[in-house]
Design goal:
Arc Repressor Mutant, subunit A; single chain; two-stranded antiparallel ribbon; Endonuclease, Chain A; 15 helices; 334 residues; alpha+beta; 3 domains
Amino acid sequence: MSDEGLRAHLRCLGLSCLQAQIYTALLDNGRCTTETLALVLGRHRNGDRFEDQELEQNLAHLRRLGLITETGTGDGELAPVEPSIALDSMTHTRVAELHQAHQAAVQAYREYRRSMGPQVTEELIEVVKGPSVAERIWNIEEAAEFEVLRFDSPPYHTHGSANSIEVENLEKGVEYRVVYSKSAVQQAAYYNINIQPCIAAGEQARVLPTVPVKLTVFDRRLALVSMSFVESEVKDYMLMVHPSSLLSALTGLFEMSWRTALPMHLSDRVPPGLGPTHRRILELLATGINDAAIAELLGVSRRTLSRHVEQINSRAGSLTRFQMALYAARSGWI
């Protein structure tokens, strides 16, 4: 790593620009007296000398942190110290400072809301309206840390576009569990650019004929409740539900629905003889949508779809779709 990059990291941990320069200068030049160090640092200032007091104050601070020490040879030489302990301490201090800043900003916003009087709803529920809805959704989803729970149903504030943020979060280890309504799965464009890529990236997906509410819960500390088709025609707005009994109830509603919903993706026990097209047909059949919708999603004719279904029946040794579904369930395909 370059000195410039290391200095940037050290500044993130709380060192000043000069303190970071001092530490990297000692790493580059080895043991130095204060006078030699001043000359080395002066080159970074285009030859400008440091005031003795300024340099001594910063050296004293680095000694207190445990990042540098005097060599004890009696000639006043300074040397860098292995930084693990000092940096761990600085990291904990920085985390505490960030937490305090977070709390201060939250408290300031709460005071602002209280100052607005009756124009603002209670602190547990926040109303977001109009064009800012989509922006808030993306910002909140980017900040998800470990879990996202979602009821997915049209219409969409994000216009049903691809969800690259979810794919990135899945790569970072954030768990997604999504229950789709049948109406969401039946939208060919939305299925192809949003649902299928997210499932392929690791999303756990299930389906119900309808979902009870349009809902997303982030890390069990914030829920977004959006409007259904009918309600969205009246007003385009979204509710943000903060930690409360209502948030707990919404999370419980999701868990109950998740247990009763049908899986949309196949398990690892599907035999390798089933090709990608047959796998997708099985996944779509499990959602309960009709043949016309499946053919549209796959971009094939109804006759071609029927031929594929017959091949799956043959592989399962079944005569009807009901028998095929039983075989798939008993064999752990779904």
